[in-house]
Write a structure and sequence with these properties.
12% strand, five-stranded parallel sheet, 195 residues, alpha/beta
Length: 195
Amino acid sequence: MSHTTEVAHCDDLMHALGEFRDHASAVTERWGAALASRLGAGCRLLVAGNGGSAAQAQHLTAELVGRYRDDRPPYSALALHADTSSTTAIANDYGVQEIFARQVCAHGRTGDVLMLLSTSGASANLLVAAKEAHRLGMSVWALTGPAPNPLEGTADEHLCVDGATTATVQELHLVAVHMLCDSFDRAVADGVVLP
């Protein structure tokens, strides 16, 4: 890889980050406060994604069950792809489109949040999961790549990242995850919820 290509990647990221910064803060601030309130009241966060987005989903749940910066009580957050026995059994018996929806049906309750991460915003298994979450009375939040996309259209709330490449979108999704965790922790510390 040439130095020019490496610099171009950084330039793409810096350009996308400038646009992202202008609108992401309000969304992640709102999501963090809402999530603190819901999880503090006993609700759960279910998160799903495919490939690199699965890694970002698991990163988010680790920050909530463990901690982001400072010590605080753990909160209920499940990365649906992380149970490999369930996902492979569901894919084998029902098809890959059902791997998240069936778990949403098993674990989701009214008031819970399903957060879906997708660089394309078009993954069939995420769209089916969103439909199931709505059927159960859950809220659906989508963190996607450029708008418009099908997942943005079906979610209750969305944050769409306008990145030139999948890598840039994934990098900004990680920024959004950290901004969400920061907002969540501040809301918990400010007493928005009682753990």
